[in-house]
Design brief:
The protein has helices spanning 7-21, 26-33, 37-49, 72-75, 80-91, 106-114, 129-133, 158-164, 190-201, 241-247, and strands at residues 23-25, 53-56, 59-62, 64-65, 99-102, 122-125, 140-143, 147-149, 154-156, 169-175, 178-180, 184-187, 203-210, 218-219, 222-225, 232-236, 253-257. The protein is an alpha/beta fold. The protein has 2 domains: 7-62, Orthogonal Bundle (Arc Repressor Mutant, subunit A); 72-257, Rossmann fold (3-Layer(aba) Sandwich). The strands form 5 sheets. It has a 7-stranded parallel sheet. Strands 1-3-2 form a 3-stranded antiparallel sheet, with helices on both faces. β5, α6 (106-114) and β6 form a beta-alpha-beta unit. α2 crosses α3 (37-49) and α5 (80-91) crosses α6. The chain is elongated and about 70 Å long. The termini are far apart.
Length: 262
Amino acid sequence: MGKPLIPAQRREKIQEYLAIHQIARTADLMDLLEASEATVRRDLEWLEQKGTLERTHGGAILNQRVIFEQEYQLRLKNFPEEKKYIGELAATLIEEGDIVFVNSGTTATQVLQHIPRNPRITVFTNNVSALVDIGDPGFSLNLTGGEFQARSNSLSGRFALDNLNMVFANKAILGVDGISLKHGLTVPTAPEAEVVRKMIERTKGQVVIVSDHSKWGAVSNFHVGNIDIMDKLVTDTRFGKQAKKELAEYPVEVLLASGMSL
C-alpha cells in the first residue's frame, strides 16, 4: 500500500473515474483509492454538495448538466437507431381504444411514427413533426395548438395548455432530456415543461417515459416530475446495470429496446 492520498487527490481521482464510467460503486472506489468505506462516503458527500455527482445506494453517478436545448435537426443525429427501437417498443404499449398524450422531441416522434394504424386510437400531441414525418397516420391525430417553438419543432403556451385541459388520457408517452434519482425528470425549456406537466396531470393511467441511455444522470433546466411518476421507462440496451439496480427500488418497469425490429 502506497502513501495515503489526501482528500483533494481522492476527489480528483473519483471525478476522473466518473468522467470515464459515468457511474461508480463504492466498493470500486475503495479499491481505487485504497480507502475505507467511510472515507469514500465522505468524499462522495463532499462532491455531491459541489454538484459534481449524485450519490446513489452503493455508489454515485456523474451529474451531467443539460443547459441548452439542441436544434431539432441536431438532436436527430444523437443515437438515431436507439431512438427508433425505443419508439417501436413504446408504440406496442398502445392499445385499441386508448387516448394517448405524446410530447415533442425526436424519441417521441419515433413513437408517433410506429403507433398502430387503428382509427380507434386517439393521440394528442404538441409535436409538429407529426405533420411532416408521419403523413396519413391511420389513427386519430390531434395537435394541441399553441405557439410554435422552432428549436424543438413543438407547440406550447396558454392555448396548448387550455386545450389539454379539455382532455383526459389513459396513457402518456413522454420524452425527457434528463433522468436523475435526485432531481427527477427534466426538460430544457419552460414552455415544454408546462406542456409535459399538464399532460402528466391529465393522464388517468400509465405514464411511460421514452429515453435513450445517455439521459440517465443528466439534469436539464426544468423539472416535470419525480422518478416515481413513471410507470414504465422504455430505453435502449446500453442502459447500465447499475442504473437498473437503482431504479429497482422504485415502482418503475424498465423495458429495453433491442436492435430487432418489432
